[in-house]
Amino acid sequence: MSLWGGRFLDESNKLFKKFNASLSFDYILAQEDIFASIAWSYALFETGVLTKKEQEKIELGLTFLKQEIYKNPEQILKSDCEDIHSWIEINLIKKIGEIGKKLHTGRSRNDQIATDLKLWCKNNIQVLLESLLNLQKQFILSAELHLDIIIPGYTHLQRAQPITFSYWCLAYVEMFKRDFERLKDTLKRLDISPLGSGALSGTAWNIDREKLALSLGFSSATNNALDSVSDRDYIIELLASASISMMHLSRFSEDLIFFNSSEANFIELSDSITSGSSLMPQKKNPDSLELIRGKCSRVYSSLFSILVLLKALPLSYNKDMQEDKESLFDAIKTWNNSLLMAGLVLKNIKLNRVLCYQAAEKGYSNATEVADYLVKKGVAFREAHYISGKIVLQAINENKALKDLDLSQFQKYNNLIENDIYDHITLEACIKKRVSKGGVSLHQVQEAIKKEKIRLNIA
Ligand code: ARG
């Protein structure tokens, strides 16, 4: 059964019917479609197309379908309807009879699908916002737990300067905070209702579209029907937000995979989120993190797919646009699952304090401190940098840490260096010094945690 038989003499080809159908994936829009249809029935009543009785009967029928679907969404899949709009309309007519045929007055599947999709995005954005908040909370809890655990900070994957695990956590809070803000911003532009745009040029019935928009929980109605049915910018924005956030998640995963490597050994991951090898009994692999890292590519591909889909597509609706859904649904589910999984991994992490400290001590990550020491003694930084470089070279040649050089060895390069140099180059001293905003000092970290806890409403 379809919604458009009248103009056709011949039956649809079987292969075409299957090729054309979207029910197998757009059935997940059922609740949104019914919600929008009930609102549409009110609008039709208010403009005089439906009597109160007819509207009530339609609403009752739709509510019945809604409950049926709620109980068993997969039942929809048994039908051979073209899409979710057809399924609901056809089943409504089956349920309440001829009156059901009035519901589609002044409406097109073009504004219907745009409305359903926006409603679906809005619902899912709420879930994602919540997940982004929860993940930030987990980072703050981990930051609080590991205030004094020193780890090496890297540039070029070479030990650069010591930091703390807390500080590393706070870096990710910043990233997921931006993701949260970006998503809220996406929501702002998305939150405008296309319903009542008709096929492309507006509805021929005098519908109060602003009122209709508010009744659906949108902030307002769109300005131009031609744009409204063509627009999928909100999907691009949502998938761009998803891609950026997945990029953050993949960097988080990569950091932890490295921290967990046999070479670094800074952390131990919980048995509950790792897996074994079928051959090598000693293995405990960070699958959860590798999968997040891998799934990032899947979300990127959904962004590229919608961008390419819409490129040079003429206004207004074209069936190409049916291809916007599967990758969107998949990407949003993947993003949310990855956020949940990242939180779970972090929650169960165990740090190896001693190995982290020893690694931070290696690699001359306190070389900058020698230069800063000399600057304090009146040497210009560029000169101080050169002298410190020479001292590092000497230490490398002797296979020693800077702290293990004799004072006389330091003084060979500059006689302003005194015994207090040793206090200046401890890891603790390196960290303590970085007191200005955004620095790694304990005070700054504690202040940041305090602020974030207030923002995130954690007692
Ligand atoms: N299944 C279609 C889609 O997902 C719904 C809109 C169909 N509109 C049309 N004029 N054929 O895009």
Automatic annotation (TrEMBL):
PROSITE patterns on file: FUMARATE_LYASES
Transmembrane intervals: none
Keywords carried by this UniProt record: Amino-acid biosynthesis, Arginine biosynthesis, Cytoplasm, Lyase
BP-aspect Gene Ontology terms: L-arginine biosynthetic process via ornithine
Pathway(s) annotated for this protein in UniProt: Amino-acid biosynthesis; L-arginine biosynthesis; L-arginine from L-ornithine and carbamoyl phosphate: step 3/3
One GO CC annotation: cytosol
Domain of life assignment: Bacteria
GO molecular function: argininosuccinate lyase activity
Gene3D superfamilies: Fumarase/aspartase (C-terminal domain), Fumarase/aspartase (Central domain), Fumarase/aspartase (N-terminal domain)
Reaction equations catalysed: 2-(N(omega)-L-arginino)succinate = fumarate + L-arginine
E.C. number: 4.3.2.1
One Pfam family this sequence matches: ASL_C2
Compartments, as annotated in UniProt: Cytoplasm
InterPro entries found in the cross-reference section: Arg_succ_lyase_C, Argininosuccinate_lyase, Fumarase/histidase_N, Fumarate_lyase_CS, Fumarate_lyase_fam, Fumarate_lyase_N, L-Aspartase-like
Domain Argininosuccinate lyase C-terminal: 364-432
SUPFAM superfamilies in the cross-refs: L-aspartase-like (SSF48557)
Keyword Zinc: no
Fumarate lyase N-terminal domain sequence ranges: 6-299
KW NAD (keyword) present: no
Family: In the N-terminal section; belongs to the lyase 1 family. Argininosuccinate lyase subfamily.
NCBIfam families in the record: argH, PRK12308.1
Name of protein: Argininosuccinate lyase
Organism: Buchnera aphidicola
Gene this protein is translated from: argH
